[in-house]
Design a protein that fits this description.
Elements lengths: L10 H21 L16 H9 L2 H10 L13 H18 L11 E4 L3 E4 H25 L12
Antiparallel strand pairs: 1-2
Helix pairs in contact: 1-4, 1-5, 2-4, 2-5, 3-4, 3-5
């Protein structure tokens, strides 16, 4: 009998990776002009404020549902001032840190249904949330450049 191979990444490594992306996304939000957050658009894409609110309604609620099994509907996506969005972002970051250790490691490989509609393994659901954030942050980079603003270095997730 051979031992089961070690996972490619452990849950705490995945969280650290995600939090690096979140730090960078926060800097993109902070670089964005407040007055443009919910109105500026390129080629019919949604404004960056809407994209940010989408990310906020996915991240902590996904981890909370994974930890507790209680899949509450995420809070609203209505426009907010940048200061408020950054406060919500920081709260969400703290929620991830607090809730993540409550997820049993085996749950990452279990299939579950998030929010009553998305069925996959928890690992894949979380990877989707991370991928979605990266995708929307990329749109934010395009918007910042179109507004004449240099975005943060994409590789600096410190």
């Amino acid at each position: 009998m051979s031992a089961e191979p070690a996972p490619f990444i452990k849950p705490e490594g995945l969280l650290a990776h995600w939090q690096g992306h979140r730090r960078l996304t926060r800097r993109v939000i902070d670089a964005f002009p407040d007055e443009q957050l919910f109105i500026f658009s390129v080629s019919g894409m949604r404004p960056f404020g809407e994209l940010t609110m989408e990310i906020l309604t996915m991240a902590a609620p996904m981890v909370e549902g994974a930890a507790s099994g209680d899949w509450k509907s995420p809070r609203g996506r209505e426009p907010r001032p940048k200061r408020e969005m950054l406060r919500l972002w920081d709260e969400s970051t703290e929620q991830l840190h607090a809730l993540w250790p409550q997820i049993p490691p085996q749950r990452f490989l279990e299939p579950l249904t998030a929010f009553g509609q998305y069925t996959d393994t928890l690992r894949n659901l979380i990877l989707y949330v991370i991928d979605n954030e990266i995708h929307h942050r990329g749109q934010g980079y395009v918007y910042l450049r179109a507004l004449g603003i240099d975005p943060p270095a994409f590789y600096d997730r410190s």
